[in-house]
Amino acid sequence: MKALILAAGRGRRLWPFTAESPKCLLNVGGMTLLERQLHHLRTAGIRQVVVVCGFGIDRVRATLKRVASPTVKLLFNPFYAIADNLISLWVARSEMDEDFVLLNGDNIFHPRSVQTLTNELAACTVLAARKGTYLPDDMKISLRGGNVSHIGKALACQDADAESLGMLIFRDRGVHILREALGDIVLEEGALNSHFPVVIQHMLDRGLPINCCFSEAFPCSDVDTPHDLERVRKNVHLYTAATVATAQTGEFN
Fold it and tell me: Given CB 3.0 to 4.6 Å as the disulfide criterion, which of 148, 149, 218, 233 pairs with 144?
């Protein structure tokens, strides 16, 4: 099994922290987000990692050299300045030759979150969390019979049953269908400005059941804004193996 990390974006919502550095190299608790991800992926038994880069790829390469991670492969997304992460996923389609975990370069997570996901055997599983209130900018999920029926930011807040945490696993048939779906959806109008869950909805529309598992005791979050960065830096202990947060903390929402 391998991991694909989408880390090509400029991270403009985190300005000025990302003026010179991509989001994945932000320091949280003495480690960059990318270093922390690689450590937790290794803990989960995932040794092969592919990182799709764009802005700051030379800095990413230098960081990997410094932390002695020669097994990490870098791919370059030449469209990073004008496209969202659906295109980064499309750039990585040649690496979709076995089961893999997909995550964003701005994800910070407890190592047990990855293990929760890799325990799932469905063709495609989305890691999610339930919330009391959903926001318009959340990547919202509607469930039917335990499976995902709809995913996207455009989903009405009142129709949401969970929020996607930005981590998924694809196995066997799911890997093949994803690769085919990417070839179709990249041709559609608006693909450049789409987030990768759009292709998950495309797979749903093709009839592939999408499983949903929950990581509420083991926090997982993304770092999109200065507020997010301040929060995870303050609560970095929640994302370490030594600490297990409870669903009541709310720190991973």
Answer: 149
Give the bridge partners for 253, in sequence order.
none
DSSP string, 32-77: EHHHHHHHHHHHTT--EEEEEEBTBHHHHHHHHHHTT-TTEEEEE-
Which runs of consecutive H residues, i.e. helices, occur in the chain? 33-43, 57-66, 85-91, 111-118, 173-185, 197-205, 226-234
Tokens 């870098």 belong to: 74
Architecture per CATH, domain 2-239, reads as Alpha-Beta Complex (3.90)
Among 71, 74, 78, CA closest to 54: 78
Cα–Cα distance measured from residue 201 to residue 69, given in angstroms and rounded to the nearest whole number: 34
- The CA-based angle 8-225-133, given to 5 degrees, is 115
| pTM, to two decimals | 0.91
Per-residue pLDDT of the chain (253 residues; tens, 9 = 90+): 999 999 998 888 888 888 888 999 999 999 999 999 999 999 899 989 999 999 999 999 999 988 867 679 999 999 999 888 899 999 999 999 999 999 999 999 998 999 999 999 999 999 999 989 999 989 999 999 889 999 999 999 999 999 999 999 999 999 999 999 999 999 888 888 888 888 988 898 888 999 999 987 788 888 989 999 999 999 999 998 764 433 333 333 3
Tell me whether residue 214 is exposed, middle or buried, using C-beta atoms within 10 angstroms of its C-beta: 0 to 12, 13 to 18, 19 or more: middle
Q: Helix, strand, or coil here: 7?
A: strand
Q: Which of 111, 89, 114 is nearest to 101 (CA)?
A: 114
In the chain, domain spans: 2-239
